[in-house]
Specification:
Subcellular location: Bacterial flagellum basal body
InterPro entries: FliE (IPR001624)
Pfam family, one: FliE
Main location: other
Protein name: Flagellar hook-basal body complex protein FliE
Number of strands: 0
Number of helices: 4
Oligomer: single chain
Order of helices and strands: HHHH
Structural class: mainly alpha
């Protein structure tokens, strides 16, 4: 069984904060149409963009809440470790799901780009 020490906890915390900042940057970046696709099918593109932006915002909110409740626990303001771990796991699952969606979109893009014309 692995022992948990302060350096491991701080490394995990820093990893979570880095993931959170990456998601905040992704959510804040303006969505531009790729290759003029938005001009061809504007309604569908804006719906997809809005859905993707909403999903990223939701994941970002979960990450922010997890970071704040973790910091609250570290300061001793709360003693409910179960709530802290639950919030962190929810944020982690949301982030992993977002990562898998990104991977699938990237794979689909690569497949389309490698198709002969």
């Amino acid at each position: 069984m692995t022992t948990i020490n302060t350096s491991n906890l701080m490394a995990m915390r820093n990893a979570i904060l880095q993931q959170n900042s990456a998601l905040q940057k992704a959510a804040a970046a303006p969505a531009a149409p790729i290759g003029g696709v938005g001009a061809v099918n504007g309604a569908t593109d804006s719906n997809f963009t809005a859905s993707l932006r909403d999903a990223l915002t939701s994941v970002n909110t979960q990450q922010t809440k997890a970071a704040s409740i973790t910091e609250s626990y570290e300061r001793g303001e709360t003693n409910d470790i179960a709530a802290v771990m639950l919030q962190r796991e929810q944020a982690n699952v949301g982030f992993q799901a977002t990562l898998q969606v990104r991977n699938k979109l990237l794979s689909a893009y690569k497949d389309i780009m490698s198709m002969p014309v």
